[in-house]
Amino acid sequence: MQNKLQELTDQLYNQGLAKGREEGDRILAEARAQAETIIADARSKADGIVAGAEQSAREIKEKAEADVRMASAQALQATRSDIENLILAKLSSQSATSDPEFLKTIILKVAERFSATEGADISLVLPESLKSQLEPWVASSLSKELGSPVQATFSKKIAGGFTIGPKDGSYYVSMTDKTFDALICEYLRPVTRKLLFGE
């Protein structure tokens, strides 16, 4: 009887142990499946985060490259324009509008045409800086050439060149350094650009 009891106890023990193992294996399998699912989800999310970060980095890089290209083009254009303006300023600053002898020649030619067509007394505005060189010439030589007195005033507002018109002030023709430079630069600009940049 003791053997039977021992057998029954062993059998119950073994059955309980088998059920426990079975239950443990099932729980362990479920835990492993859940762990694999969690790991797969985590990997998927990590891959998504990495892909998003890579895409964002690509977009930032492309935008930065586009900004650099645009800034380079603008800087190049500004530099070209500055070079062109410096050259034109140098050329125009060397213009003859401040040379008294050149001005005398031009004033005489313009005044002859002016007085021939208008038949009016002429008024000149000349640079203050050239007063000592031009005032005696206007009073004597120019008036004698034109056959009538010429009124000349001198202005600090004119650095070079002159303005000419009838004494009544109804209109005037400007040939100052600014108008001369504007006229010359208008023609020099395309030629200068082509010489400098091949455009």
Largest sheet: 4 strands, mixed
Q: What's the CATH class of the largest domain, please? A: Alpha Beta
> What is the number of helices?
4
- Ends distance: 118 Å
- Helix percent reads over 70%
CATH fourth-tier homologous superfamily of the largest domain: ATP synthase, E subunit, C-terminal
Q: Estimate what percentage of residues fall within beta strands.
A: 5-15%
Any overview of this molecule?
By secondary structure, the protein is of the alpha+beta class. The mean pLDDT is 76. The protein has 2 domains: 94 residues; 102 residues, hypothetical protein PF0899 fold (2-Layer Sandwich), CATH 3.30.2320. Helix 3 links the parallel strand 1 and strand 2. It contains 4 helices and 4 strands; from the N terminus they run ααβαβββα.
Mind sketching the topology for me?
Blueprint: H1 2-93, H2 100-118, E1 122-127, H3 131-146, E2 150-155, E3 161-166, E4 173-176, H4 177-197
Parallel strand pairs: 1-2
Antiparallel strand pairs: 1-3, 3-4
Helix pairs in contact: 1-4, 2-3
Short note summarizing the structure:
This protein is an alpha+beta fold.
What are the main properties of this structure?
single chain, 199 residues, alpha+beta, hypothetical protein PF0899 fold, 2 domains, 4 helices, rod-shaped
